[in-house]
Design a protein that fits this description.
Radius of gyration: 26 Å
CATH architecture of the largest domain: Alpha-Beta Complex
Order of helices and strands: HHHEEHEEHHEEHEEHHHEEHHHHHH
CATH topology of the largest domain: 3-hydroxy-3-methylglutaryl-coenzyme A Reductase, Chain A, domain 2
Number of strands: 10
Helix content: 40-55%
Number of helices: 16
CATH class of the largest domain: Alpha Beta
Mean pLDDT: 93
Shape: globular
Strand content: 15-25%
Distance between the termini: 45 Å
Largest sheet: 4 strands, antiparallel
CATH superfamily of the largest domain: 3-hydroxy-3-methylglutaryl-coenzyme A Reductase, Chain A, domain 2
Amino acid sequence: MQPITGFSKLSKVEKIEFLNKELFNNSKAIPARFESYWHTSETEQKIFDEFSENTLTNYFFPYGVVPNFLLDDELICVPMVIEESSVVAACAKSAKFWQTRGGFKSQVISTSKVGQVHFSWEGNPTALREVFDREKANLLNSIKPLLASMQKRGGGLKTLELIDRTSDEPDYYQLFVTFETCDAMGANFINSVLEGLATELQKRIENVKIIMSILSNYTPDCLAKAWVECPVEQLNDPSLDMSPEEFIEKFTKAVRISQIDVHRATTHNKGIFNGVDSVILATGNDFRAVEACGHTFAAKDGHYRGLTKAEVVDGMFKFSIELPLSLGTVGGLTSLHPLAKLSLDMLGQPDAARLMTIAAAAGLAQNFAALRSLVTSGIQKGHMKMHLMNILNHLEANESEANVIKKLFENKTISHQGIRDELSKLRNYQ
């Protein structure tokens, strides 16, 4: 491919034509393939195009729902956007299982978010502390205009501290700031306030060198909890194919293993985020920030651990999760993406705190489904049934062939090679 200048200034069609010429040998099919995923409405497509840069087309993911999800005694329909086979089905299976056992419960523990001004200052730390304490009120006063709108909604700046990190890095300090951003994720608000503080800090204290001012995606005090619980005897379910006591023994052991072994913990938590990320994507929130924060939280004591806990106390089985979730229901893509807005409508226009609990509960439901499969029939039985259509599509099976293969594998182990072999036999026979 040849270097190009001014690519971003080309129209979308011109970008496609350039790439087609350079990478696809002027194939007639390539422009049509890109265009086939454009929205039929030019207005809607313009919204999608402006989400990012150098956009060529839209990349589709399946949008599914989990109905009959009982959360805090309210039946809700949970939207989920994900491409992985069996995730939505597994979450729905958990929802059905717990619907008759009290459903999912939740609690928002706290909603504080964090920002930092990182700076250098040469001199005696005690002297810096003294001048900071003297100037703190002036620093806060300087950013009042930036806080006004958020304060009207009940949010704003909560705390402002000077942190001495010179033991880790010479001359390194922080302004450590906590915020309440109400129903907004608040990134732009937080960053604007931090930059305002940084500017004023340099004015008020000599020789301050600002390194950077930025929110932190680690928000351990923006925390939601979700749990399910029932008497042990209520786990006497034919689908488990074992006694409640044996199921609980294996299930709780599997959870403890995720607390001990980092290899298992990673996969354990990945399954949780299958559920969490699906809700995050469906509602137009930032799943990368949520994942980064969640994995950091999983290692908060210096050892990476599973994010869920299981226990039996006084004859009650309880399965729970605590998860930091910095989410918003106003601003950003939540207000721009047509399907994100539809998702929030589906959920009854929740505030940010309620959305935190929905996402946490979805993660817990996903983890329960995965662990239930692992300690009973095994993960592949259900997963591969859901994966069957992907395999058939990959092998370009027509509808008639697909129906035959699906019936053939109803009670057989599903594998890519096995389906390929049977499909080959079927085609040779025909």
